[in-house]
Amino acid sequence: MKGKTPVAERRRWPRLPLAIPVFVRSRAESDKEFLEFATAMNVSAGGMLVAVRRSIPSAAQISLEIPSAPLAALAAALPTVIRILRAKVLRTHHGEGYNLVGLKFSRPLLNSHARARPRRKITSSL
Predict the structure, then answer these.
(1) In Å, how far from its chain's centre is CA 57?
(2) What are phi and psi of 113, to 5 degrees?
(3) From the CB of residue 21, how many other CB atoms can be counted at a distance below 10 Å?
(4) Are 38 and 48 in contact (CB under 8 A)?
(5) What tens digit of pLDDT does each residue of 79-124 get?
(6) How far apart are CA 40 and CA 17, in angstroms?
(7) What predicted TM-score, i.e. pTM, was given to this entire model?
């Protein structure tokens, strides 16, 4: 039995296996807007995999909102963070009672210069 040749990795950023609650907003096929509470299964700078109950067609435009506790008293002291993301559906895997939806962010969370680069070893002069 011959081994499979490894497929070249096409992803630009590594995936982080984080379960994050997220609200998914889009338009259904009937052109009615819907809002669903879902769970992100993994996240990268370029997109995320989301588990939703609703079937969402490929190429649909999605708005994602990451819920957070109100921090009005601390808001001025904290750095600004991204809570609403725009994305496009790339693929959907239908399961029993859920759908895994692969999304690509409209803008990567990192700029192109911040991509993972090999780090050089720093040597000590001692």
Answers:
(1) 17
(2) -80, -15
(3) 12
(4) no
(5) 666 689 999 999 999 999 999 999 999 999 886 554 444 445 555 5
(6) 9
(7) 0.72
